[in-house]
Specification:
Layout: E1 9-12, E2 21-27, E3 32-35, E4 40-45, E5 56-61, E6 64-65, E7 69-73, E8 78-80, E9 82-86, E10 92-96
Antiparallel strand pairs: 1-2, 1-7, 2-3, 3-6, 4-5, 7-8, 9-10
Length: 105
């Protein structure tokens, strides 16, 4: 089970985008995430008439290491660590380490 998943709201803890919040678009691999609006890079792109793409300079979201983000806790309005807990009915859920609240509602 993954601590940070697609669709989670995360906050950046280190780097040039420190303090920014975004939504996880996808997991690139075990260590990297693609977060909306975070770690943007400019790419010079050639036009491609076959795909109906215009040329120019475009902004791309680049992958960020999972250790540089923390799951956003809405109760404390801060980034928080994630743990796991087994419920009475046998389900395994993610919890916030600071207050023990269940992440998956």
């Amino acid at each position: 089970m993954q601590k940070i998943r697609k669709g989670d709201d995360v906050i950046v803890t280190t780097g040039k985008d420190k303090g920014k919040r975004g939504t996880v678009l996808r997991r690139v691999d075990d260590r990297h995430l693609l977060v909306e609006g975070i770690n943007r890079a400019k790419k010079h792109q050639k036009p491609n008439p076959m795909k109906n793409q215009t040329g120019g300079i475009v902004d791309l979201d680049m992958p960020i290491d999972i250790s540089n983000v923390a799951l956003f806790n809405p109760q404390t309005q801060k980034g928080d660590r994630v743990g796991f807990k087994a419920l009475e009915d046998g389900r395994k859920v993610r919890i916030f380490k600071s207050n023990g609240e269940v992440v998956d509602a």
